[in-house]
Write a structure and sequence with these properties.
Elements (H helix, E strand, L loop, with lengths): L1 E5 L4 H11 L5 E6 L8 H5 L7 E3 L2 H8 L3 E4 L3 H13 L3 E4 L6 H14 L2 E4 L5 H13 L5 E8 L9 H11 L22 E3 L2 E7 L5 E9 L2 E9 L6 H10 L5 E4 L7
Parallel strand pairs: 1-2, 1-4, 2-3, 4-5, 5-6, 6-12, 7-9
Antiparallel strand pairs: 7-10, 8-9, 10-11
Helix pairs in contact: 1-8, 4-5, 6-7
Amino acid sequence: MRVVVVGAKGRMGRETVRAVLNDPELELVGCVDRTLNDVAVSAVLGHESNGVKFSNDLVKTLIDTNADVMVDFTTPATMKANIDKAIELGVRPVVGTTGMTPEEIANWDQACKDRGIGGLIAPNFAIGAILMMRFAQQASRYLPHVEIIEMHHDQKLDAPSGTAIKTLELIAQERQAVQQGHPNEHETIPGSRGGEFDGMRVHSVRLPGYVAHQQVIFGGLGQTLTIRHDSINRESFMPGVVMSCKQVMKYEGLVYGLENLLD
């Protein structure tokens, strides 16, 4: 499978480049970044290009390399146009950037089906994070009072994280909305109680030193339950990225969430 990595100079992009290079079933054929050229090859690969095409032109790279899969770790503003271009060219998008609407996801799903290709948008590629979301969904059947605290590095652009939103959506499938906290509570400092989603509260922390972390806290009579996942480094996302590159070759339509690829 011929893979092009977009956002290759970024922290997630570089990790993805290494993961693709190290997998015998994948072939890295192109790296795209806004400021990427042959001079920057060593900054991404750590050695000479060995036939990998480096460019700041996504469309030209996808065409020239005859790519099967485009892995995108860019920004919300850039990612949407990249997905459109990839699908138009029949290249399967595997996207880790978040910040799209349900309507956009539905439109891309139909576009993929029209082209007869698969695609994936994953709020989180860490297998442990997917298990955290599944366990939280199950727990909400019995402990419906829940709040989420998600913690990321201070360069993350969107809040709450895509993982937090996906967790809230999964929980909402299992429980009825309930009133949490005192009905007459008052925020002395606006925003202190966090964002609200179907009666649940979500809090976003952005600090240097974090990578990606989330805890889902359930409260019941005389007890609490906390389900927590921590990505210590970006390598934790790579097994999910590699698996996704292979799986999108097997189906048609756009899948939202890595959990849909698991048994």
